[in-house]
What does this fold into?
Amino acid sequence: MASVVLPPELESFAAGAVASGRYRDLSEVLAAGVRLLQRQETARAAFVASLEDAEAESERLGFCTLEDIDAEMTGIIGEARRAKA
It folds into this structure.
């Protein structure tokens, strides 16, 4: 593995993590950090894919503006009120 140079604040944090006994050595600290980054990147990719899917669906099926939804809901509420009266 290549040597790693950390900024002083990260080096201090990593040394503290090892000193606390939570990690065996700096390699474990770095591996934990890379795993966290990997999970974050996987989650980001899934989020981007869901946005792309939603965009494709809206292009396929059309989409409503907030004003369209507000008008529809106002109509539904008005009908329900008239039905009660």
The chain has three helices and no strands.
